[in-house]
Input
Amino acid sequence: MKIEKINLYNLSMKLRTPFETSFGRIDTRDCLIIEIFSQGLSGYGECTADRDPGYSYETTKTAWHILDEFVFPVVLEKEMSSPESFQALVGFIRGHQMAKAGMEMALWDLYGKMHNRSLRQMLGGVNDTVRVGVSVGLQETSKKLVEVVGGYLDNGYCRIKIKIKPGRDIKDTSAVRQAFPDILLQVDANSAFSLSNVDALLPLDDMNLILIEQPLADDDLWDHHLFQKKMKTPICLDESIHSTRHARQALEMQACRIINIKAGRVGGLSEGLAIHNLCQDNKIPVWCGGMLETGVGRAANLALASLPGFSLPGDISASDRYYERDITHQRFILNSDSTINVPDGAGLGITVDHQALKMVTLAEKTY
Ligand code: OSB
Ligand code: MG
Output
């Protein structure tokens, strides 16, 4: 496969409702879309970096820079045998996993279209549908949070994740737990705590949570180990895991008992698959995280989450939870059993609505 042309788009997508985490509140979700061309076919990839460096040091601007100056020049006009061979070409770029992952996704999509195979087939996915939950942002009050959670339960979501931060932790979580004693519930702190204040979370151990996601700093595996020792509830790492090596070390160190896999955070779908395999070998449950993706990234998440080790519901909600109008013709809908269908068309199995894409494009460049 030889890439003849690339279009890079910087999008700004208006969310239906603002999304607030411990690192900030957004009304619009920015991202990059990479469109690649070869032999009359096109492939799409989504880079999950956001406008601000709150979740990750990467931003839409750093990813644009890395793609523009370093990734595209080594990919264009080069013969690549498969999407996996891409990683060797960009091995000289330290970090910038989201930029690399966006490009890799586009290569998977194109490669799948060339060989008439779905991403699910190529990755080795086994399920036609995947169980999903919803990630609920911080709300004004605990009461409002309970209302919002109730709304998503009415929609049919089987699992709720709530965002927490210092001062908005025990009260919010216990309010949701009291209102809904039997639901699958988990919390995500997005690194908002440190060893000096994380003991505030000890009461969570009595709230029957599936997991506590990333309470401590992204670069702090050891402190997660110390905190996990005090808690019966499994710690799940998100921000801390950027590679299979990190995943292995986190497990060896007993810094967590569950891993959230996001292809963007780990440099691509191939690395996400490798982490899945490592965790499966070690009997560690994994689940697919989300980054408020458009339909492009959502299709990739569904294919990844169809692998057999994804035993917990993913943060892959229906399209209407995020955007009024998405950039794909396909909209993902929630089935009555809290699942979403895995696309089965070639590649990602989606088509891009160029009219919708144009409406949300802030900048674009052709290579
Ligand atoms: O920590 O999982 C996270 C969104 C943006 C950045 C980080 C996270 C999230 C979510 C939303 O929790 C998950 C989704 O519905 O896409
Ligand atoms: Mg998270």
In short: The radius of gyration is 20 Å. The first strand starts at residue 5 and ends at 21.
